[in-house]
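Might you be able to check the C-alpha cells below? Thank you kindly.
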Amino acid sequence: MAPERAVGPLAGPLTAREACPTAASIFSRVHGKLWDDEVSIVKIAEVFHSVQGEGSLLGVPSVFVRTSGCNLRCSWCDTPYTSWNPEGATLTVEEVLARVSAYRCGHVVVTGGEPMIAPDIAALTTGLRTLGSHITIETAGTVYAPVPCDLMSISPKLANSTPEGPWRERHDALRIQPDVLRRLMGEYAHQLKFVVAAADDLVEIRAVVESLRAKAANVILMPEGIDAAVLRERGRWIAEICKREGFRYSPRLHVDLYGNRRGT
C-alpha cells in the first residue's frame, strides 16, 4: 500500500506546546522551528493502514502515523526519511485525525523517527484518544512527554546503532537515558524492544535490563535487518537466547509480508 500524502491548508485547535516543553525544545534544536503558535501541527512522513509487524501486538491491524524528525541517527535506520533526511508534510492535528478516522481501525501506532520530540505530540495523542483509539507509541525512550498511551513501545538503542562520522558522539551520548526510561516504564504499560544484530549484544541488553529492573516478560528481542533471509538467519539464534533468558521473541512481520517498503 502506498503511503498517503497530506494536503490542505493549516487549520486546527490551539497548540499543546506548553504541555511538552522538553520535546519542543529538542525538536527545534535538531530540525528547526516547525510549529505555529496558533495551531497544533505535526510534521508527518506518512499515514498508512497495515498490521503491526513487531512486539506484543504482532499482527493486529493498525493505522500507523509516522512523524518525521529524530534526535538519534541509527546506523541501520530503516526509515532514513524520518531521521537522516527527514521529509514529510506539516499537518494540523485535525488533518491527521481525519486521515486516521478514514480507516475505521481501532488501533493506532504513533511512530517515527522519534514521535516524542514532536512539539505537539500531546495534542496529537489526545486527539487520537477522542477517537477511541488504542494508542501505541514507538519511542527510543530518550525523551519524556505527557501523552495518552495504552502501550509505550520503548526501543532503547544499543551500541550497534551508533554511526560513524559527525553524529557518532552525539548519538552515543543520547541513546540510553535511564531516568527517562524509568519514568516511561513507571507511568505506562510498556514493552522494551531491543534490536539485535550480533550475539554479543546480549551483554549490553542484560546490563540495561538489570539497571532498569525490567521484568523479563516485558523484554522483546528482535533481529536487525531489512532482508527476509537475514532476519530468518538471525531469528533462529535470537529465539534460542529468548528461550534461555525468558525474554520474548519478535519477528519483523511486515518485512516478511511486504519486503522493505514504505507504507507497510
Summary: The chain has one domain: 27-258.
